């Protein structure tokens, strides 16, 4: 199993949480406050760095470093939802370079395999190179041993094998092909963004994280401008946390249902509890 997947399951059980909070908000201070408020209740924090204004690229003290400090404080993995989709060489530059330097602070990134499997090879070279470089610099074990509890300096990839949006082009054949490509890069691909479990062969140990998740409006605390329901006006389709966990998804991804709330920490706790109860129910079955 990928070291980050092992760590993720350790977190899921110790925090009793299957929740990934998605920061679909547009300023750096609000993103950092959201991470701090939801930190105790989530195992993964998903970012879209390119929707944020005010990103500070300064090494060591900038936005990436601040986010990494929160991940260590609360123990969660950072997932930059970059959806790489270019040729391998360009994807490498996008992963490592620019103002965001995603490679330095995001444990997990994701990609569409539309451009073919070599793009995964390109990202893997960077991810594994980063782990080695970091080890050399800090002289610590790549799996974080000796720093028990804090996220390890590993890098992993999720492939989009299904999407939650209406009319998307990821049909069954594409999904199957994506899974078979993932099997050839098990040392870097942790799993999938998908709507259901993808494991079908005995040696498969892929994790599935699922977006398009909301509590029904009548269960919500009704304190946000956007109250998610069965769908949003732009084709997003929602399923309840309980349904997703009972169908075998490992982590639910919740964006506006939490981040548009004035009491995002309390909302995250509410989602965490509903999902965890369903997870325990599933484990008992
Ligand atoms: O198929 C997908 C894949 C992703 S990563 N559907 C999605 O909605 N996402 C992301 O999950 C999307 O980019 C957004 O950041 C989040 C869902 O947000 P929500 O506000 O609808 O919960």
Automatic annotation (TrEMBL):
UniProt domain Orotidine 5'-phosphate decarboxylase: residue ranges: 18-271
Binding-site residues, substrate: 24, 46, 164, 236, 255-256
Catalytic residues identified in the record: 81, 83, 86
Pfam families membership: OMPdecase
EC number: 4.1.1.23
A single Gene Ontology CC term: cytosol
GO biological process: 'de novo' pyrimidine nucleobase biosynthetic process; 'de novo' UMP biosynthetic process
Stored InterPro entries: Aldolase_TIM, OMPdecase, OMPdecase_AS, OMPdeCOase_dom, RibuloseP-bd_barrel
One GO molecular-function entry: orotidine-5'-phosphate decarboxylase activity
Pathway where it operates: Pyrimidine metabolism; UMP biosynthesis via de novo pathway; UMP from orotate: step 2/2
Keyword terms, alphabetized: Decarboxylase, Lyase, Pyrimidine biosynthesis
Family: Belongs to the OMP decarboxylase family.
Protein name from the UniProt record: Orotidine 5'-phosphate decarboxylase
Organism for this UniProt entry: Phialocephala subalpina
Lineage: Eukaryota, Fungi, Dikarya, Ascomycota, Pezizomycotina
């Amino acid at each position: 199993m990928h070291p980050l997947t092992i760590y993720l399951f350790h977190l899921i059980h110790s925090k009793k949480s299957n929740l990934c909070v998605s920061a679909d908000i547009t300023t750096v201070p609000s993103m950092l406050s959201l991470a701090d408020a939801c930190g105790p209740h989530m195992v993964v924090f998903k970012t879209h760095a390119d929707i944020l204004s005010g990103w500070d690229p300064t090494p060591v003290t900038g936005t990436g470093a601040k986010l990494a400090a929160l991940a260590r404080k609360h123990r969660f993995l950072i997932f930059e939802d970059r959806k790489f989709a270019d040729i391998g060489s360009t994807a490498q530059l996008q992963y490592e370079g620019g103002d965001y330097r995603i490679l330095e602070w995001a444990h997990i990134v994701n990609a569409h395999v539309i451009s073919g499997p070599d793009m995964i090879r390109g990202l893997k070279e960077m991810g594994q190179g980063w782990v080695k470089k970091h080890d050399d610099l800090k002289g610590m074990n790549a799996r974080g041993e000796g720093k028990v509890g804090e996220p390890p300096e590993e890098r992993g990839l999720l492939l989009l094998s299904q999407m939650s949006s209406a009319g998307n082009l990821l049909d069954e054949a594409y999904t199957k092909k994506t899974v078979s490509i993932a099997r050839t890069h098990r040392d870097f691909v942790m799993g999938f963004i998908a709507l259901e479990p993808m494991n079908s062969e005995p040696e498969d140990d892929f994790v599935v994280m699922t977006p398009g998740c909301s509590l029904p409006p009548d269960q919500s605390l009704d304190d946000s401008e956007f109250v998610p329901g069965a769908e949003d006006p732009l084709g997003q389709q929602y399923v309840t946390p309980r349904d997703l966990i009972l169908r075998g998804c490992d982590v639910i991804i919740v964006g506006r249902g939490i981040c548009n709330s004035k009491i995002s920490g309390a909302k995250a706790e509410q989602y965490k509890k509903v999902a965890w109860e369903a997870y325990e129910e599933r484990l008992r079955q």
